[in-house]
Amino acid sequence: MLDSVRVRLTLWYSIVLALVLVFLAGFTYFLYWHNTSQRADSDITELSEAFVTTFHAELGGEDRPEAVKNAARESMLEHRFSGTYFVLLDASGSLLQSPSGLPGTGDAREQLPEGFFSSESFRSLMAEASNPDELHTIPGGRDGFRGLVRPIPVGGQTYTLVVLRSLHPQRELMEDIRNTFLWAIPLSLLLAGLGGYFLSRKSLAPVAAMASQARGISAVNLHNRLTIVNERDELGQLALTFNNLLERLEASFEQQRRFMADASHELRTPVAILRGETEVTLSQPERSPSEYRETLSILRDESRRLARIIEDLFTLARADAGQYPLTLRDAYLDELASDALVRGRSLALSKNITLVSAIEPDLPIRADEVLLERMLLNLLDNAIKYSPVGSTVTLGCRRDRERYLVSVTDNGPGIPAELQPRIFERFFRTDKARSRSEGETGGAGLGLSIARWIVEAHFGKLELEGSDSSGSTFTATLPAEPSD
Ligand code: ADP
Predict the structure, then answer these.
(1) Residue 382 DSSP one-character state
(2) Mean of pLDDT values over 334-353
């Protein structure tokens, strides 16, 4: 059960709420008790003063003990309050006038108990309380009394007034408050817990809905998206992030699917040619040696083409997975470029194309030589392949401050402007039929993708700098070793 966020949330804030309520109740209880005690004390003091005023007024200047007793009696009758008692003692400490025998008021439980004035607690009050500002709590009755003792001088004599107030009403009130807290706190906790549980259930309901929607999404329906109720709140943001993830996944799935479809299509053609050629040749029991030679040379070209496509696909697959191992060594770009020119010579010769070298000397670079040369050859191959017989292809290599610029320029027909943005896409060719008819040299549209990946793996950039009917220029920018 604790695995549910709803239950954990409810539990947590119920605990916090319980602590807050208990603290608040304790604090309120203490504050109330403190204030009522203080108020009761000042009431007793005020009452004693009122009593003394009445007492003196009743006495009318007399000082006979009989008159004093009568004045005290009248004053007591006048100041009758529930749970409050006045006692007058003479100079020797004997009771002169007590509330006994006077008509009482209020609750019987607050009455002074029988024999209270001879009790130990009353004697201790008399012994301790000599200061009229000091009030004392003494036991007796139901909940004890609060008492004040003050001297009243009359003539030559000093009488003592004792004011007692029952603590029962205050204690009873505090008990009521305590009992109220005892049922109110658990009840409010229960209500808050239930309310909290339903609230968290309601606010987490979209999460459950999202989870069930997400469970229904797989490779076959990647176009489905989570419903977003409010994209500004946290759950909306979560759904939005998830949808963006799906978007990227779908795009990469689509790319993967297209790649597979294009790859199988590209592989199917040379295989079909191989099969067709062999079947046609074998359909006759006998063929002339020249016919066999012709068929074999077609088989050789197609199998080379097949091998190249497979090699290119393998390179790209490893590059995508980030698993192509780059062997970086200190090398010279000018030497790599010259080697590439030499290797491109045979293809150029077959088309009577002049290869021009515009390579600056001494261009040190830290690179994977095999890959860089492969990139240069891809560009040169393309330039030669797509240029007319007898034209010129130039390979330039130079330093430009902190970078090397490698460019391959041809006088070919150029690439139509609307197709230029797509030429680095995998399997993209401006003229598919023509490439294929080129036999071994006809590419599958992967050469530029691989060349671009190689340049990027060396932290550079490969771009088609310009292309029109007078020719095309591809330029690779590579970071240069700092010059001395
Ligand atoms: P391919 O193996 O078909 O040459 P690439 O990826 O190397 O594939 O090139 C993609 C397409 O870009 C080619 O099919 C071709 O149409 C076009 N292209 C590349 N280089 C040149 C160039 N120098 N001149 C004209 N078109 C080019």
Answers:
(1) H
(2) 93
DSSP state of 304: H
Q: In what order do the strands lie in the sheet with 136-138?
A: 95-97, 84-89, 157-166, 145-154, 136-138
Given a contact cutoff of 8 angstroms between Cβ atoms, the answer to whether 187 and 195 are in contact is: no
Are 206 and 226 spatial neighbours (Cβ–Cβ below 8 Å)? no
CA angle 203, 206, 210 (to 5 degrees): 155
Q: Which residues pair with 355 in a beta bridge?
A: 393
Quick: pLDDT tens for 348-390: 999 999 999 999 999 999 999 999 999 999 999 999 999 999 9
Residue partners of 47: CB distance under 8 A and separation at least 6 = 79, 81, 84, 163
Query: Residue 11: which of 202, 207, 192, 205 has the closest Cα?
Result: 192
- CA dist., res. 340 & res. 342, Å (int): 5
Look at 44-58, 89-103, 302-316, 324-338 and tell me which has the smallest mean pLDDT: 89-103
| Rounded distance between C-alpha atoms, residue 324 and residue 317, angstroms | 9
Contact (Cβ atoms closer than 8 angstroms) between residue 72 and residue 55: yes
Q: Is the CB of 445 under 6 A from ligand 1?
A: yes
Gap from CA of 424 to ligand 1 centroid (Å)? 9
CA of 445 to the centre of ligand 1 (A): 7
- At residue 89, φ and ψ (nearest 5 deg) are -115, 145
Bridge pairing between strands 392-400 and 354-359: parallel
Instruction: Report residue 51 CA to chain centroid gap.
Output: 72
Alpha helices (H) in 326-431, listed in sequence order: 333-350, 369-385
Which residues have a Cβ under 8 Å from the Cβ of 341 and sit 6 or more positions away?
355, 357, 380, 395
DSSP-derived secondary structure for 56-83: HHHHTT---HHHHHHHHHHHHHHT-BTT
Best residue among 425, 428, 429 to mutate for probing ligand 1, ranked by most atoms within 8 Å of CB = 429
Interatomic CA distance for residues 252 and 249, integer angstroms: 5
- Identify which of 159, 170, 111 has the alpha carbon closest to the alpha carbon of residue 137: 170
- The answer to whether 315 and 325 are in contact (CB under 8 A) is no
Cβ atoms 28, 223 nearer than 8 A: no
Residue 147, ligand 1, Cβ within 6 A: no
Q: Do the strands 461-468 and 392-400 form a parallel or antiparallel pair, or are they unpaired?
A: unpaired
Q: Tens digit of pLDDT for each residue in 225-284? A: 998 888 888 889 999 999 999 999 999 888 888 888 988 988 898 899 999 999 999 998
Residue 161, strand partner residues: 88, 150
Provide the pLDDT for residue 442: 63
Q: Which residues pair with residue 365 across a beta bridge?
A: 331
- Please state, in angstroms and rounded to a whole number, the distance separating the CA atoms of residues 228 and 225: 9
Give the whole-angstrom CA distance, residue 483 versus residue 434: 45
Phi and psi (nearest 5°) for 399?
-95, 140
